[in-house]
Amino acid sequence: MPILQLSETMVNQIAAGEVIERPASVVKELVENALDAGASHIEIVTAGGGLSLIRVTDDGMGIPASELPLAVSRHCTSKLSDDINAIHSLGFRGEALPSIGSVARLTLRSRTADSDSGAEIAIEGGRMSPVRPAAANRGTIVEVRDLFFATPARLKFMKGERAESTATSDVVRRTAIAFPAVRFTLAGADRAILELPPVGDDPKGRLNRIARIMGAEFPENSIEIDAEREGVRLSGHVSIPSFTRANALHQYAYVNGRPVRDKLIAGAIRGAYADVLPRDRHPVTVLFLSLDPAMVDVNVHPAKADVRFRDPGLVRGLIVGAIRQALAQAGIRPATTGAAGLMAAFRAETAERWRGNITSEWRPAATQEASRTADFIYEASPHRPLDHDQPIGTPVNGQGFAESGQAMFDAGPLASADTRAGWGVANDTLMGRSLGAARAQVHQNYIVAQTHDSLIIVDQHAAHERLVYEALKTALHSRPLPSQMLLMPEIVDLAEDDAERLALHAETLRRFGLVLERFGPGAVAVRETPAILGETNVQQLVRDLADEIADHDTVDTLVERLHAIAATMACHGSVRSGRLLKPDEMNALLRQMEATPGSATCNHGRPTYIELKLADIERLFGRR
Protein backbone atom coordinates (compact mmCIF):
# COMPACT_ATOMS: atom_id res chain seq x y z
CA MET A 1 0.00 0.00 0.00
CA PRO A 2 1.45 3.41 -0.91
CA ILE A 3 2.14 6.06 1.75
CA LEU A 4 -0.71 8.59 1.89
CA GLN A 5 -1.19 11.92 3.65
CA LEU A 6 -3.92 11.59 6.26
CA SER A 7 -6.82 14.01 6.08
CA GLU A 8 -7.14 16.80 8.67
CA THR A 9 -10.26 15.15 10.09
CA MET A 10 -8.46 11.81 10.51
CA VAL A 11 -5.48 13.53 12.17
CA ASN A 12 -7.81 15.29 14.62
CA GLN A 13 -9.62 12.07 15.47
CA ILE A 14 -6.34 10.29 16.15
CA ALA A 15 -5.25 13.16 18.39
CA ALA A 16 -8.63 13.11 20.13
CA GLY A 17 -7.94 9.52 21.18
CA GLU A 18 -5.18 10.81 23.47
CA VAL A 19 -6.73 14.09 24.62
CA ILE A 20 -10.44 13.16 24.88
CA GLU A 21 -10.72 9.86 26.71
CA ARG A 22 -14.19 10.36 28.24
CA PRO A 23 -16.65 13.19 29.05
CA ALA A 24 -14.58 14.16 32.09
CA SER A 25 -11.65 14.88 29.73
CA VAL A 26 -13.80 17.36 27.80
CA VAL A 27 -14.83 19.11 31.02
CA LYS A 28 -11.20 19.28 32.15
CA GLU A 29 -10.01 20.91 28.91
CA LEU A 30 -12.87 23.42 28.76
CA VAL A 31 -12.59 24.40 32.42
CA GLU A 32 -8.83 24.92 32.05
CA ASN A 33 -9.48 27.18 29.03
CA ALA A 34 -11.94 29.20 31.13
CA LEU A 35 -9.41 29.57 33.96
CA ASP A 36 -6.70 30.66 31.53
CA ALA A 37 -9.16 33.29 30.24
CA GLY A 38 -9.39 34.81 33.74
CA ALA A 39 -12.91 33.61 34.57
CA SER A 40 -14.29 34.24 38.07
CA HIS A 41 -17.42 32.09 37.57
CA ILE A 42 -17.54 28.79 35.68
CA GLU A 43 -20.78 26.90 35.18
CA ILE A 44 -20.83 23.30 33.91
CA VAL A 45 -24.04 21.58 32.80
CA THR A 46 -24.15 17.95 31.62
CA ALA A 47 -26.73 15.42 30.52
CA GLY A 48 -26.48 11.69 29.91
CA GLY A 49 -23.26 11.50 31.89
CA GLY A 50 -21.75 14.08 29.51
CA LEU A 51 -22.25 11.97 26.40
CA SER A 52 -25.45 13.80 25.39
CA LEU A 53 -24.50 17.32 26.49
CA ILE A 54 -21.67 19.26 28.07
CA ARG A 55 -22.02 23.03 28.36
CA VAL A 56 -19.31 25.17 30.00
CA THR A 57 -20.03 28.88 30.53
CA ASP A 58 -17.50 31.37 31.84
CA ASP A 59 -17.17 35.14 32.32
CA GLY A 60 -13.58 35.36 31.08
CA MET A 61 -12.05 37.73 28.56
CA GLY A 62 -13.74 36.09 25.56
CA ILE A 63 -12.47 35.48 22.00
CA PRO A 64 -12.72 38.06 19.19
CA ALA A 65 -14.90 37.01 16.26
CA SER A 66 -11.94 37.15 13.88
CA GLU A 67 -10.02 34.59 15.98
CA LEU A 68 -12.78 31.99 16.34
CA PRO A 69 -11.62 29.91 13.31
CA LEU A 70 -8.11 29.81 14.80
CA ALA A 71 -9.47 28.85 18.22
CA VAL A 72 -10.88 25.62 16.77
CA SER A 73 -7.85 24.83 14.60
CA ARG A 74 -5.01 22.53 15.66
CA HIS A 75 -1.84 23.95 17.20
CA CYS A 76 -3.28 27.45 17.52
CA THR A 77 -2.98 29.00 20.98
CA SER A 78 -2.56 32.35 22.70
CA LYS A 79 -0.87 30.84 25.77
CA LEU A 80 2.58 29.91 24.52
CA SER A 81 5.45 32.04 23.31
CA ASP A 82 8.55 30.78 21.50
CA ASP A 83 9.93 29.28 24.75
CA ILE A 84 8.45 25.84 25.48
CA ASN A 85 10.00 25.99 28.97
CA ALA A 86 8.04 29.12 29.94
CA ILE A 87 4.59 27.59 30.45
CA HIS A 88 2.53 29.63 32.92
CA SER A 89 -0.96 28.51 31.83
CA LEU A 90 -2.95 25.29 32.18
CA GLY A 91 -3.38 24.84 28.44
CA PHE A 92 -0.78 25.45 25.73
CA ARG A 93 -0.95 22.72 23.07
CA GLY A 94 -3.86 24.12 21.03
CA GLU A 95 -5.39 20.64 20.63
CA ALA A 96 -8.45 20.53 22.89
CA LEU A 97 -11.13 22.31 20.84
CA PRO A 98 -10.24 20.78 17.44
CA SER A 99 -10.00 17.33 19.05
CA ILE A 100 -13.45 17.72 20.64
CA GLY A 101 -14.89 19.08 17.40
CA SER A 102 -13.58 16.09 15.44
CA VAL A 103 -15.57 13.54 17.49
CA ALA A 104 -18.63 15.57 18.56
CA ARG A 105 -20.92 18.46 17.66
CA LEU A 106 -19.26 21.56 19.10
CA THR A 107 -20.58 25.11 19.25
CA LEU A 108 -18.39 27.98 20.47
CA ARG A 109 -20.03 31.33 21.28
CA SER A 110 -17.96 34.19 22.70
CA ARG A 111 -17.89 37.93 23.27
CA THR A 112 -15.08 40.19 24.43
CA ALA A 113 -15.51 43.11 26.82
CA ASP A 114 -15.00 45.76 24.11
CA SER A 115 -17.35 44.15 21.58
CA ASP A 116 -20.98 45.17 21.06
CA SER A 117 -22.09 41.66 20.13
CA GLY A 118 -20.93 38.10 20.22
CA ALA A 119 -20.05 35.58 17.54
CA GLU A 120 -20.47 31.85 17.11
CA ILE A 121 -18.74 29.03 15.25
CA ALA A 122 -19.69 25.38 15.01
CA ILE A 123 -17.85 22.14 14.20
CA GLU A 124 -19.56 18.83 13.51
CA GLY A 125 -17.42 15.75 13.14
CA GLY A 126 -14.45 17.88 12.06
CA ARG A 127 -16.37 20.04 9.55
CA MET A 128 -16.19 23.73 10.42
CA SER A 129 -19.05 26.14 9.68
CA PRO A 130 -18.61 29.89 9.00
CA VAL A 131 -18.58 32.42 11.82
CA ARG A 132 -21.96 34.06 12.44
CA PRO A 133 -23.23 36.77 14.83
CA ALA A 134 -24.84 35.63 18.06
CA ALA A 135 -26.25 37.16 21.24
CA ALA A 136 -23.92 36.60 24.15
CA ASN A 137 -22.74 38.06 27.43
CA ARG A 138 -19.06 38.75 28.03
CA GLY A 139 -17.19 35.49 28.18
CA THR A 140 -17.46 32.18 26.38
CA ILE A 141 -20.00 29.35 26.09
CA VAL A 142 -18.82 26.00 24.72
CA GLU A 143 -21.50 23.43 24.04
CA VAL A 144 -20.61 19.84 23.17
CA ARG A 145 -23.36 17.45 22.04
CA ASP A 146 -23.34 13.79 21.06
CA LEU A 147 -19.80 13.10 22.17
CA PHE A 148 -18.06 10.37 20.10
CA PHE A 149 -20.86 10.22 17.53
CA ALA A 150 -18.16 10.43 14.83
CA THR A 151 -16.18 7.56 16.42
CA PRO A 152 -18.84 5.02 17.48
CA ALA A 153 -16.21 2.47 18.51
CA ARG A 154 -15.19 4.73 21.40
CA LEU A 155 -18.74 4.72 22.77
CA LYS A 156 -18.45 0.99 23.45
CA PHE A 157 -15.75 1.72 26.02
CA MET A 158 -17.79 4.27 27.99
CA LYS A 159 -19.10 3.28 31.41
CA GLY A 160 -22.59 3.99 32.74
CA GLU A 161 -23.98 7.48 33.23
CA ARG A 162 -23.36 7.37 36.97
CA ALA A 163 -19.68 6.45 36.55
CA GLU A 164 -19.12 9.15 33.92
CA SER A 165 -20.88 11.73 36.08
CA THR A 166 -18.71 10.77 39.05
CA ALA A 167 -15.55 11.19 36.95
CA THR A 168 -16.73 14.64 35.84
CA SER A 169 -17.45 15.68 39.43
CA ASP A 170 -13.98 14.53 40.46
CA VAL A 171 -12.38 16.67 37.73
CA VAL A 172 -14.31 19.75 38.83
CA ARG A 173 -13.50 19.20 42.50
CA ARG A 174 -9.80 18.67 41.84
CA THR A 175 -9.59 21.83 39.76
CA ALA A 176 -11.65 23.88 42.22
CA ILE A 177 -9.21 23.18 45.08
CA ALA A 178 -6.43 24.99 43.20
CA PHE A 179 -8.62 28.02 42.41
CA PRO A 180 -10.55 28.92 45.60
CA ALA A 181 -11.29 32.47 44.36
CA VAL A 182 -13.36 31.13 41.43
CA ARG A 183 -17.02 30.12 41.70
CA PHE A 184 -17.75 26.66 40.26
CA THR A 185 -21.23 25.33 39.52
CA LEU A 186 -21.85 21.78 38.29
CA ALA A 187 -25.41 20.76 37.44
CA GLY A 188 -27.34 18.35 35.28
CA ALA A 189 -30.34 16.06 35.07
CA ASP A 190 -28.27 13.16 36.38
CA ARG A 191 -26.84 14.77 39.54
CA ALA A 192 -27.52 17.19 42.35
CA ILE A 193 -26.13 20.69 41.92
CA LEU A 194 -22.57 21.18 43.15
CA GLU A 195 -22.09 24.81 44.13
CA LEU A 196 -18.64 26.01 45.22
CA PRO A 197 -18.72 29.74 46.06
CA PRO A 198 -15.53 31.82 45.98
CA VAL A 199 -13.73 31.86 49.33
CA GLY A 200 -10.58 33.89 48.62
CA ASP A 201 -7.07 32.97 47.52
CA ASP A 202 -5.44 33.21 50.97
CA PRO A 203 -4.52 30.12 53.05
CA LYS A 204 -7.73 30.37 55.08
CA GLY A 205 -9.86 30.55 51.95
CA ARG A 206 -8.04 27.62 50.40
CA LEU A 207 -8.59 25.51 53.51
CA ASN A 208 -12.29 26.41 53.43
CA ARG A 209 -12.51 25.24 49.83
CA ILE A 210 -10.68 22.01 50.74
CA ALA A 211 -13.09 21.38 53.61
CA ARG A 212 -16.05 21.98 51.30
CA ILE A 213 -14.78 19.33 48.89
CA MET A 214 -13.11 16.79 51.17
CA GLY A 215 -15.40 17.02 54.18
CA ALA A 216 -15.64 19.20 57.26
CA GLU A 217 -13.67 16.69 59.35
CA PHE A 218 -10.50 17.02 57.23
CA PRO A 219 -9.19 20.39 58.55
CA GLU A 220 -9.31 19.29 62.19
CA ASN A 221 -7.59 16.00 61.31
CA SER A 222 -4.89 17.53 59.10
CA ILE A 223 -1.50 19.16 59.47
CA GLU A 224 -0.31 22.16 57.48
CA ILE A 225 2.73 21.69 55.26
CA ASP A 226 5.03 24.58 54.32
CA ALA A 227 8.59 23.83 53.22
CA GLU A 228 11.07 24.97 50.60
CA ARG A 229 14.30 23.55 49.24
CA GLU A 230 16.49 24.81 46.39
CA GLY A 231 13.76 26.84 44.75
CA VAL A 232 10.99 24.21 45.12
CA ARG A 233 8.14 25.21 47.45
CA LEU A 234 5.75 22.69 49.00
CA SER A 235 2.55 23.70 50.77
CA GLY A 236 -0.82 22.20 51.60
CA HIS A 237 -2.32 19.86 54.20
CA VAL A 238 -1.87 16.18 55.05
CA SER A 239 -3.93 14.01 57.37
CA ILE A 240 -2.69 12.75 60.69
CA PRO A 241 -1.81 9.02 60.63
CA SER A 242 -5.04 7.97 62.37
CA PHE A 243 -7.22 9.67 59.70
CA THR A 244 -7.08 7.50 56.57
CA ARG A 245 -9.08 6.21 53.62
CA ALA A 246 -9.39 2.82 51.94
CA ASN A 247 -7.94 4.09 48.63
CA ALA A 248 -5.70 6.86 47.30
CA LEU A 249 -8.48 8.77 45.52
CA HIS A 250 -8.38 11.41 48.25
CA GLN A 251 -4.81 12.40 47.46
CA TYR A 252 -4.65 15.64 45.48
CA ALA A 253 -1.42 16.99 43.98
CA TYR A 254 -0.81 20.22 42.07
CA VAL A 255 2.27 21.44 40.22
CA ASN A 256 2.22 25.19 39.60
CA GLY A 257 -1.57 25.09 40.01
CA ARG A 258 -2.05 22.20 37.59
CA PRO A 259 -3.83 19.07 38.91
CA VAL A 260 -1.61 16.05 38.25
CA ARG A 261 -1.55 12.33 39.00
CA ASP A 262 2.17 11.73 39.27
CA LYS A 263 3.76 8.44 40.35
CA LEU A 264 6.72 10.16 41.96
CA ILE A 265 4.49 12.29 44.19
CA ALA A 266 2.31 9.30 45.08
CA GLY A 267 5.40 7.25 45.92
CA ALA A 268 6.80 10.04 48.09
CA ILE A 269 3.54 10.20 50.05
CA ARG A 270 3.65 6.43 50.61
CA GLY A 271 7.27 6.72 51.74
CA ALA A 272 6.48 9.51 54.21
CA TYR A 273 3.72 7.44 55.85
CA ALA A 274 5.51 4.09 55.44
CA ASP A 275 5.64 3.05 59.08
CA VAL A 276 2.59 4.81 60.51
CA LEU A 277 -0.20 3.38 58.33
CA PRO A 278 -1.56 -0.12 57.67
CA ARG A 279 -0.80 -1.50 54.21
CA ASP A 280 -4.42 -1.24 53.10
CA ARG A 281 -4.99 2.37 54.26
CA HIS A 282 -4.05 5.64 52.58
CA PRO A 283 -3.57 9.19 53.92
CA VAL A 284 -5.64 12.14 52.75
CA THR A 285 -3.42 14.84 51.24
CA VAL A 286 -3.61 18.12 49.35
CA LEU A 287 -0.14 19.18 48.19
CA PHE A 288 0.90 22.17 46.10
CA LEU A 289 4.33 22.25 44.44
CA SER A 290 5.57 25.58 43.11
CA LEU A 291 8.78 25.75 41.10
CA ASP A 292 10.35 27.31 38.04
CA PRO A 293 8.47 26.05 34.94
CA ALA A 294 11.83 25.24 33.39
CA MET A 295 12.40 22.63 36.15
CA VAL A 296 9.33 20.58 35.23
CA ASP A 297 8.11 19.14 31.93
CA VAL A 298 4.30 19.21 31.64
CA ASN A 299 4.40 18.22 27.96
CA VAL A 300 4.87 14.50 28.63
CA HIS A 301 1.39 13.55 27.44
CA PRO A 302 -1.35 15.47 25.61
CA ALA A 303 -3.68 15.07 28.60
CA LYS A 304 -1.09 16.96 30.74
CA ALA A 305 -1.84 14.79 33.79
CA ASP A 306 1.74 13.46 33.98
CA VAL A 307 4.81 15.58 34.67
CA ARG A 308 8.56 15.01 34.75
CA PHE A 309 10.87 16.85 37.14
CA ARG A 310 14.39 17.82 36.21
CA ASP A 311 15.55 16.76 39.70
CA PRO A 312 13.14 14.04 40.90
CA GLY A 313 15.30 13.23 43.92
CA LEU A 314 14.99 16.80 45.16
CA VAL A 315 11.19 16.79 44.83
CA ARG A 316 10.79 13.37 46.44
CA GLY A 317 13.11 14.25 49.30
CA LEU A 318 11.27 17.51 49.91
CA ILE A 319 7.88 15.79 50.09
CA VAL A 320 9.04 12.93 52.32
CA GLY A 321 11.05 15.19 54.62
CA ALA A 322 8.37 17.88 54.93
CA ILE A 323 5.59 15.41 55.74
CA ARG A 324 7.69 13.49 58.28
CA GLN A 325 8.80 16.71 59.95
CA ALA A 326 5.22 17.99 60.09
CA LEU A 327 3.99 14.73 61.62
CA ALA A 328 6.75 14.89 64.23
CA GLN A 329 6.06 18.53 65.11
CA ALA A 330 2.31 17.97 65.32
CA GLY A 331 2.81 15.86 68.41
CA ILE A 332 0.28 13.26 69.46
CA ARG A 333 -3.22 13.72 68.04
CA PRO A 334 -6.05 11.19 67.66
CA ALA A 335 -8.47 11.34 64.75
CA THR A 336 -11.80 12.89 65.68
CA THR A 337 -13.49 10.15 63.67
CA GLY A 338 -12.39 7.57 66.25
CA ALA A 339 -14.39 9.25 69.00
CA ALA A 340 -17.30 9.75 66.63
CA GLY A 341 -17.33 6.04 65.78
CA LEU A 342 -17.19 5.13 69.45
CA MET A 343 -20.08 7.48 70.19
CA ALA A 344 -22.12 5.96 67.37
CA ALA A 345 -21.45 2.45 68.70
CA PHE A 346 -22.55 3.49 72.20
CA ARG A 347 -25.74 5.04 70.86
CA ALA A 348 -26.56 1.97 68.76
CA GLU A 349 -25.99 -0.43 71.65
CA THR A 350 -27.99 1.73 74.04
CA ALA A 351 -30.89 1.93 71.62
CA GLU A 352 -30.85 -1.85 71.16
CA ARG A 353 -30.94 -2.40 74.92
CA TRP A 354 -33.86 0.00 75.33
CA ARG A 355 -35.75 -1.87 72.61
CA GLY A 356 -35.05 -5.13 74.44
CA ASN A 357 -36.30 -3.69 77.75
CA ILE A 358 -39.50 -2.48 76.16
CA THR A 359 -40.36 -5.85 74.57
CA SER A 360 -39.40 -8.01 77.56
CA GLU A 361 -41.86 -8.93 80.32
CA TRP A 362 -41.59 -7.02 83.59
CA ARG A 363 -40.74 -9.08 86.62
CA PRO A 364 -42.34 -8.56 90.01
CA ALA A 365 -40.62 -6.00 92.21
CA ALA A 366 -39.48 -8.61 94.70
CA THR A 367 -37.95 -10.72 91.92
CA GLN A 368 -36.11 -7.69 90.52
CA GLU A 369 -34.75 -6.84 93.95
CA ALA A 370 -33.58 -10.41 94.51
CA SER A 371 -31.94 -10.42 91.09
CA ARG A 372 -30.06 -7.22 91.79
CA THR A 373 -28.85 -8.62 95.11
CA ALA A 374 -27.66 -11.82 93.46
CA ASP A 375 -25.84 -9.88 90.78
CA PHE A 376 -23.70 -8.10 93.36
CA ILE A 377 -22.50 -10.83 95.70
CA TYR A 378 -19.40 -9.19 97.12
CA GLU A 379 -17.04 -12.15 97.12
CA ALA A 380 -18.16 -13.92 93.94
CA SER A 381 -19.09 -11.34 91.33
CA PRO A 382 -16.79 -8.90 89.53
CA HIS A 383 -19.82 -6.62 89.07
CA ARG A 384 -20.20 -5.73 92.77
CA PRO A 385 -20.93 -2.10 93.76
CA LEU A 386 -18.25 0.27 94.99
CA ASP A 387 -17.45 0.02 98.66
CA HIS A 388 -17.76 3.64 99.79
CA ASP A 389 -15.85 2.91 102.99
CA GLN A 390 -12.68 2.24 100.99
CA PRO A 391 -10.51 5.16 99.80
CA ILE A 392 -10.39 5.59 96.04
CA GLY A 393 -7.45 3.72 94.52
CA THR A 394 -7.24 1.11 97.29
CA PRO A 395 -7.06 -2.44 95.90
CA VAL A 396 -10.24 -4.47 96.33
CA ASN A 397 -9.51 -8.07 97.47
CA GLY A 398 -5.91 -7.54 96.53
CA GLN A 399 -6.73 -6.81 92.89
CA GLY A 400 -5.49 -3.26 92.31
CA PHE A 401 -3.57 -1.63 89.50
CA ALA A 402 -0.91 -4.37 89.41
CA GLU A 403 -0.10 -7.80 90.73
CA SER A 404 1.70 -7.96 94.04
CA GLY A 405 5.43 -7.35 93.89
CA GLN A 406 5.55 -6.64 90.16
CA ALA A 407 8.62 -4.62 89.15
CA MET A 408 8.17 -1.53 87.03
CA PHE A 409 8.89 -2.32 83.38
CA ASP A 410 11.63 -0.44 81.61
CA ALA A 411 9.88 2.03 79.31
CA GLY A 412 13.14 3.46 78.02
CA PRO A 413 14.69 6.88 78.61
CA LEU A 414 12.18 9.65 79.28
CA ALA A 415 12.25 12.79 77.18
CA SER A 416 12.96 15.40 79.79
CA ALA A 417 13.33 16.24 83.46
CA ASP A 418 9.74 17.49 83.41
CA THR A 419 8.59 14.07 82.29
CA ARG A 420 10.52 12.31 85.06
CA ALA A 421 9.19 14.78 87.59
CA GLY A 422 5.66 14.04 86.37
CA TRP A 423 5.55 10.79 88.35
CA GLY A 424 5.30 12.55 91.67
CA VAL A 425 3.37 15.69 90.91
CA ALA A 426 -0.24 16.25 91.79
CA ASN A 427 -2.94 14.75 89.62
CA ASP A 428 -4.08 18.26 88.71
CA THR A 429 -0.82 18.85 86.87
CA LEU A 430 -0.99 15.49 85.08
CA MET A 431 -4.56 16.19 83.99
CA GLY A 432 -3.27 19.28 82.23
CA ARG A 433 -1.17 17.09 79.94
CA SER A 434 -2.53 16.02 76.57
CA LEU A 435 -2.98 12.40 77.73
CA GLY A 436 -3.87 13.27 81.31
CA ALA A 437 -3.47 11.19 84.47
CA ALA A 438 -3.93 7.41 84.56
CA ARG A 439 -6.99 6.37 86.55
CA ALA A 440 -7.33 2.63 85.95
CA GLN A 441 -6.44 -0.35 83.82
CA VAL A 442 -9.34 -2.37 82.39
CA HIS A 443 -9.30 -5.83 80.80
CA GLN A 444 -5.57 -5.93 81.51
CA ASN A 445 -4.79 -3.99 78.33
CA TYR A 446 -6.52 -0.61 78.29
CA ILE A 447 -5.39 2.33 80.35
CA VAL A 448 -8.11 4.82 81.25
CA ALA A 449 -6.79 8.35 81.78
CA GLN A 450 -8.47 11.63 82.59
CA THR A 451 -7.73 15.19 81.46
CA HIS A 452 -9.55 18.36 82.47
CA ASP A 453 -12.05 18.01 79.62
CA SER A 454 -11.85 14.46 78.27
CA LEU A 455 -11.47 10.73 78.87
CA ILE A 456 -8.53 8.88 77.26
CA ILE A 457 -8.50 5.15 76.52
CA VAL A 458 -5.04 3.78 75.64
CA ASP A 459 -4.11 0.40 74.16
CA GLN A 460 -1.01 -0.30 76.26
CA HIS A 461 0.53 -2.90 73.91
CA ALA A 462 0.07 -0.79 70.76
CA ALA A 463 1.37 2.33 72.50
CA HIS A 464 4.51 0.71 73.93
CA GLU A 465 5.14 -1.03 70.61
CA ARG A 466 5.41 2.39 68.92
CA LEU A 467 7.73 3.68 71.66
CA VAL A 468 10.10 0.71 71.31
CA TYR A 469 10.00 0.96 67.51
CA GLU A 470 10.93 4.65 67.51
CA ALA A 471 13.80 3.95 69.89
CA LEU A 472 15.08 1.19 67.58
CA LYS A 473 14.83 3.46 64.53
CA THR A 474 16.81 6.13 66.33
CA ALA A 475 19.48 3.56 67.12
CA LEU A 476 19.54 2.42 63.48
CA HIS A 477 20.17 5.92 62.16
CA SER A 478 22.43 7.26 64.91
CA ARG A 479 25.43 5.05 64.08
CA PRO A 480 26.61 2.63 61.38
CA LEU A 481 24.89 -0.73 61.65
CA PRO A 482 26.93 -3.86 62.41
CA SER A 483 27.40 -6.12 59.41
CA GLN A 484 28.28 -9.75 58.90
CA MET A 485 30.98 -10.74 56.40
CA LEU A 486 30.02 -13.31 53.79
CA LEU A 487 32.21 -16.41 53.56
CA MET A 488 32.35 -15.91 49.80
CA PRO A 489 31.47 -12.59 48.13
CA GLU A 490 28.08 -12.72 46.37
CA ILE A 491 28.40 -11.65 42.72
CA VAL A 492 25.28 -9.98 41.33
CA ASP A 493 25.05 -9.50 37.57
CA LEU A 494 23.36 -6.24 36.60
CA ALA A 495 23.03 -3.82 33.76
CA GLU A 496 26.08 -1.56 33.62
CA ASP A 497 24.00 1.53 34.50
CA ASP A 498 22.54 -0.20 37.57
CA ALA A 499 25.98 -1.27 38.75
CA GLU A 500 27.25 2.28 38.38
CA ARG A 501 24.33 3.68 40.37
CA LEU A 502 24.93 1.21 43.20
CA ALA A 503 28.61 2.11 43.26
CA LEU A 504 27.72 5.80 43.63
CA HIS A 505 25.59 4.97 46.70
CA ALA A 506 28.14 2.57 48.20
CA GLU A 507 29.00 4.83 51.16
CA THR A 508 25.36 5.29 52.13
CA LEU A 509 24.76 1.54 51.88
CA ARG A 510 27.84 0.89 54.03
CA ARG A 511 26.26 2.90 56.88
CA PHE A 512 23.38 0.43 56.86
CA GLY A 513 25.65 -2.60 56.88
CA LEU A 514 25.64 -3.44 53.15
CA VAL A 515 29.17 -3.43 51.72
CA LEU A 516 29.52 -3.83 47.97
CA GLU A 517 31.92 -2.82 45.19
CA ARG A 518 32.15 -2.92 41.42
CA PHE A 519 33.06 -6.29 39.93
CA GLY A 520 33.67 -5.74 36.27
CA PRO A 521 31.56 -3.66 33.88
CA GLY A 522 28.16 -5.23 34.66
CA ALA A 523 28.28 -6.69 38.17
CA VAL A 524 28.82 -5.87 41.84
CA ALA A 525 30.39 -7.98 44.57
CA VAL A 526 28.57 -7.97 47.94
CA ARG A 527 31.02 -8.65 50.77
CA GLU A 528 28.95 -7.81 53.88
CA THR A 529 25.25 -7.65 54.71
CA PRO A 530 23.44 -6.05 57.68
CA ALA A 531 23.66 -8.40 60.65
CA ILE A 532 20.10 -7.56 61.69
CA LEU A 533 18.74 -9.11 58.47
CA GLY A 534 20.22 -12.54 59.21
CA GLU A 535 20.10 -14.84 56.20
CA THR A 536 18.73 -12.85 53.30
CA ASN A 537 18.36 -13.11 49.53
CA VAL A 538 21.30 -10.92 48.54
CA GLN A 539 20.57 -11.13 44.81
CA GLN A 540 16.99 -9.91 45.22
CA LEU A 541 17.95 -7.20 47.69
CA VAL A 542 20.61 -5.73 45.39
CA ARG A 543 18.34 -5.85 42.34
CA ASP A 544 15.53 -4.12 44.24
CA LEU A 545 17.95 -1.44 45.37
CA ALA A 546 19.18 -0.92 41.81
CA ASP A 547 15.60 -0.52 40.57
CA GLU A 548 14.73 1.98 43.28
CA ILE A 549 17.85 4.05 42.71
CA ALA A 550 16.98 4.15 39.00
CA ASP A 551 13.44 5.35 39.79
CA HIS A 552 13.93 7.66 42.76
CA ASP A 553 17.68 7.95 43.40
CA THR A 554 17.20 6.60 46.94
CA VAL A 555 18.11 3.49 48.92
CA ASP A 556 14.82 3.30 50.79
CA THR A 557 14.36 -0.39 49.97
CA LEU A 558 17.15 -1.35 52.34
CA VAL A 559 15.97 1.14 54.97
CA GLU A 560 12.41 -0.22 54.76
CA ARG A 561 13.67 -3.78 55.27
CA LEU A 562 15.63 -2.69 58.33
CA HIS A 563 12.58 -0.83 59.65
CA ALA A 564 10.46 -3.94 59.11
CA ILE A 565 12.88 -5.95 61.27
CA ALA A 566 12.78 -3.19 63.89
CA ALA A 567 8.98 -3.23 63.83
CA THR A 568 8.93 -7.00 64.45
CA MET A 569 11.42 -6.62 67.31
CA ALA A 570 9.30 -3.83 68.79
CA CYS A 571 6.16 -5.95 68.60
CA HIS A 572 7.80 -8.83 70.52
CA GLY A 573 9.70 -6.56 72.88
CA SER A 574 6.86 -4.31 74.02
CA VAL A 575 4.65 -4.70 77.07
CA ARG A 576 2.11 -7.44 76.34
CA SER A 577 -1.64 -7.38 76.56
CA GLY A 578 -2.72 -8.91 79.85
CA ARG A 579 0.06 -7.41 81.94
CA LEU A 580 -1.11 -5.50 84.98
CA LEU A 581 0.56 -2.12 85.40
CA LYS A 582 1.13 0.03 88.44
CA PRO A 583 -0.12 3.64 88.40
CA ASP A 584 3.41 4.98 87.99
CA GLU A 585 4.00 2.64 85.06
CA MET A 586 0.84 3.78 83.33
CA ASN A 587 1.70 7.44 83.82
CA ALA A 588 5.25 6.84 82.57
CA LEU A 589 3.81 5.26 79.41
CA LEU A 590 1.50 8.26 78.86
CA ARG A 591 4.34 10.75 79.31
CA GLN A 592 6.54 8.90 76.80
CA MET A 593 3.69 8.81 74.31
CA GLU A 594 3.40 12.58 74.56
CA ALA A 595 7.12 12.95 73.86
CA THR A 596 7.29 10.50 70.93
CA PRO A 597 6.38 11.58 67.38
CA GLY A 598 3.83 9.35 65.68
CA SER A 599 2.70 7.65 68.88
CA ALA A 600 -0.98 8.15 68.01
CA THR A 601 -0.68 4.98 65.90
CA CYS A 602 1.24 1.74 66.35
CA ASN A 603 3.73 0.29 63.85
CA HIS A 604 0.85 -1.32 61.95
CA GLY A 605 -1.15 1.91 61.68
CA ARG A 606 -3.78 1.11 64.31
CA PRO A 607 -4.71 3.89 66.76
CA THR A 608 -3.01 3.67 70.15
CA TYR A 609 -5.65 5.71 71.98
CA ILE A 610 -9.09 7.27 71.66
CA GLU A 611 -10.16 10.55 73.22
CA LEU A 612 -13.72 11.19 74.34
CA LYS A 613 -14.51 14.79 75.16
CA LEU A 614 -16.55 15.46 78.29
CA ALA A 615 -19.21 17.12 76.14
CA ASP A 616 -19.57 13.88 74.13
CA ILE A 617 -19.95 11.81 77.29
CA GLU A 618 -22.58 14.22 78.64
CA ARG A 619 -24.51 13.87 75.40
CA LEU A 620 -24.53 10.09 75.86
CA PHE A 621 -26.28 10.60 79.20
CA GLY A 622 -28.69 13.21 77.85
CA ARG A 623 -27.08 16.09 79.75
CA ARG A 624 -26.71 18.14 76.54
Overall description:
- With about 625 residues, this protein is an alpha+beta fold.
- The chain folds into 3 domains: about 10-195, Histidine kinase-like ATPase, C-terminal domain (Heat Shock Protein 90, 2-Layer Sandwich), CATH 3.30.565; about 215-330, Ribosomal Protein S5, domain 2 (2-Layer Sandwich), CATH 3.30.230.10; about 345-355 and about 400-624, Ribosomal Protein S8, Chain: A, domain 1 (2-Layer Sandwich).
- Helices cover about 40% and strands about 20% of the residues.
- Strands 1, 2, 3, 4, 5, 6, 7, 8 and 9 form a 9-stranded mixed β-sheet that branches.
- A hairpin with a 6-residue loop joins strand 3 (about 105-110) and strand 4.
- The longest helix is centred in the middle third of the chain and has 24 residues, at about 335-360.
- It starts with 7 loop residues before the first helix and ends with a helix.
- Residues about 360-425 have low confidence and may be disordered.
